[in-house]
Known about the structure:
Blueprint: E1 4-10, E2 13-30, E3 37-48, H1 58-68, E4 75-80, E5 88-92, E6 95-101, E7 106-107, H2 118-121, E8 128-133, H3 140-160, E9 167-168, E10 172-177, H4 194-216
Amino acid sequence: MDPQLLLRTEEGLDLPYLVWRFPAPCRVVSSAILGGGLGTRRWILNAQVKAGYGRLDPAEHLTELATAVDLAGPGVGLLTAVDVAEVVAESDDGIRLWATVGLGAPIQAYDPAAGLTETSTAARPGTVNVVAWAPRLLGDAALVNAVATITEAKTQAIRDLGLAATGTATDAVCVLCPTDGAPAAYGGPRSRWGEPLARAAYRAVLAGGRSWAERSGG
């Protein structure tokens, strides 16, 4: 399940991207702009784009990138302005998790002074992208719960980095698991699979946040 690090040239820049090619289709829940929602997927792509990304068709852009490296069938596409070569990988009790972390634009989820709308942020790349693999089939509710668990752990790590924030405006989470077997019913932070998901997500975002701060001088 380890991702492949590839490089492309775009608008005169050499930009890396990560590609996960599944050996078999996976059950996935994702908030990604391409392939989001619940369903069966064959691959994941997490692409770095330049700062100030201005394309208004991010799903089409990701489809083009997937086609260029022969990714066939339905998949998940993520964007970020973070250097994806700095991906942080964590393992915990059967869980595999990868995070690309940048915290240059942290926000509080609820901010009465904020005025951005969904349309004004739709084409902006995510800044904290998390991909996680559970080795057991998770039921639909458990998959949704797993996204919440990862998000809670991410926020905990961001707070422990000293930021009064819950994330960035365009973070994305993707959780995948096998398509067969007896489904686990729960994905919360005290469940069999939610607990190691929380530990792995916390450690990955904390380490990624520290590394990002060192690189950016933050």
